[in-house]
Amino acid sequence: MEEAESNADTQTRQDAQRHVEVIEAFRTELVELERAGVLALTGAQRNAVNAHHAALIARLKGDFDIDRDARSKQLSLGMRVASFLGALAFAASVFFLFYQYWGRLGTGAQVAILLGGSLASFMLTVLIRARDATGYFTKLAALVAFSCFVLNIAMLGQIFNITPSDKALLVWGAMAFLLAYACDLRLLLAVGLLCVLGFASARVGEWSGLYWLDFGERPEDIFPAAIVIFALPRLASQNRFGGFASTYRLIGALSVLSPMLALSFWGNVSYLNWDPTTIEHSYQVIGFAASAAAIWAGARWQWPETTNAGVVFFVIFLFTKFYDWWWESMPKYLFFLLLGLTALLALFVLRRLRSGSPTGSGSSP
Amino acid sequence: MNLRSNRFLLISGSLLVCVANGIVFLGVLYNRHPPADSTLMLTERELVPSRSWSLSPENSGLDLQIEVRTPATRSGSPGESGEDEGAPPWGGAQWLSPEKLRSLGFPLASTGDMDKDRRRDEKLLARDVYLVLELNGNAYEHELQHAQEQATQDELLASAAPEDRLRVERAKYGRERADAERNKESRLFCIDAGLDPLALRQLYPDRAHYAIVRGTVRPYVYESAGHWRVMGRFADLRIPQLNVSLVHRSIFGASRNRGYADAIALGIAGGRTDREGARHYSVEVAWGRRLEPWILGATGNP
């Protein structure tokens, strides 16, 4: 019963890792308290706490393959990087392997290899997932399976001269989501979200009369889907999936702020029929406001990724404007001095925000 | 069934792969179900082996690029002037007039405010429409006739002043151009567009010479004689390339693999240089119910 209670909030690897880190911090602080004479546990109490923590850590480690100390944490990071790079390399290898030989195969063999490759790589992922406690090999296999599926559909289109369709993005997105949620893979979640963004933008563009492949030429097409993606973790809880909510918010925030940045430079790609300069100025103002709103929301609800995205875009908006206004007219030392002073001002503002932000309870997953 | 269970993952993933592939195959079967919407006999003039820019040494596949032209925009008579200087450089078509563009759904501006109208028209992007491709028809005859008249005119001028090197060069170039028009250039022209493929088919019932395909057109704003004008421009076919299956590969002599340098040289020089030593072939291309093309048969010509 106690164990069940203590594990109630531990649903993801990230939660488990956090829990172990809290235990480590507690142990360190306990030593300090005892050294300062503030607290002294009896032998029985100390043994009970140690036994409880040891059992808890053992179970969490068994369930989630967590890092017990700083060294294993560093090694985990290395494994994550190796897994990611390996997946990219395997995916590229699959792609180039097919391209190298497909011209020497008949249509039947091409189709059989594409379909077989998709199914086999997917089944291999499921098989590895059942045996891989660490998750690194599963992630690698999942990315390769996704690449095989993308290659499958794209090459069928080429082999049979099929009209390019935005619906392919939807199918790829579905596969990316399936693998992301099943294998706890944030990278594929981001890919899936980008597929959905592409599809939704293409549809908005089509409703406005554009050819769907031109959706990138009207950056405003992205806004509706980007806002929905940003808000989604509020509407559908992602608590069971570590880091998924922040991935949604990050992709959403970037997809709102990037088009604004583009429109603040190239007003003529907007839907608005105003003078391009007016459009650019408007989007500069909107971009500043949206970046500031992202910083505020991130600080308010403790969404670090949203705050970081807001800060980065605020700085980009600000510096590009400084460049436009003063690069030609100012001596360079003065220009860079002004940049430095602005950075200093930003530091003061962020520090104030940090000191004023609530801790712990206001956080949202 | 849990979202993270292996069984759920296996069933849903396999189903997704199979359903996606199934939809593709059903679409192909539907498109290729006889009778074809149109069947054109194209040659090396209209179908040029293409290579993608960056992947050429690694890509063993072969695609044939469909070379579609639009009737050139001209003013004046042969010998007086060539193409209209202010006209779109490629793909501009006089038949894509402002009225035609409006009928294709382009909301061309007509507020009377010149600057505002121009700004609005310049922002219009391509639209997906149905295009009519004419093979070896009036548009080609017109181009051929114009090239020959131009060549004759230039030769007359050159013979009247043989010491004028410029005129001699121009006459030589004109003759080469006329010969190329007769023997090498594509005879496939984009001559009309619409939003209803059935209505277009009624206008062009000859399925052996007119293919109705999907493609994009876009308005082009240009300045001519101090005034800005709007003209439509053929942008692209939705399927600009045909995949060549292994059965037909030998006909195109494409078993050789180009190196990067060759691919880049071809990209810079354009398809024409590649046509110089090209093989001669005839390819029967069909466009099906979904207006998607495929190769019915191909034969090599001596």
Structural account:
The complex is a heterodimer of chains A (365) and B (302). Chain A is an all-alpha fold. Chain A has 13 helices and no strands. In chain A, helix 5 (107-131) runs antiparallel to helix 6 (136-159), helix 6 packs antiparallel against helix 7 (167-183) and helix 9 runs antiparallel to helix 10 (244-265). Mean pLDDT of chain A is 86; it is low at 1-8 and 359-365. Chain B has 302 residues and is an alpha+beta fold. In chain B, 35% of the residues lie in helices and 25% in strands. Chain B has eight helices and ten strands. In chain B, a hairpin with a 2-residue loop joins strand 6 (210-224) and strand 7. Chain B is globular and about 85 Å long. The chains are: A mainly alpha (365), B alpha+beta (302). At the A-B interface, helix 4, helix 5, helix 6 and helix 7 of A face helix 1, helix 3 and strand 8 of B.
Topology of helices and strands:
The complex is a heterodimer of chains A (365) and B (302).
Chain A lengths: L1 H5 L6 H23 L7 H22 L5 H32 L5 H25 L4 H24 L7 H17 L2 H22 L15 H13 L8 H22 L10 H26 L2 H23 L5 H25 L9
Chain B lengths: L5 H27 L5 E6 L3 E4 L12 E4 L31 H6 L10 H9 L4 E9 L2 H23 L4 H19 L4 E7 L2 H7 L6 E15 L2 E11 L3 E3 L16 H10 L1 H5 L4 E8 L5 E9 L1
Antiparallel strand pairs in B: 1-9, 2-3, 3-8, 4-5, 4-6, 6-7, 9-10
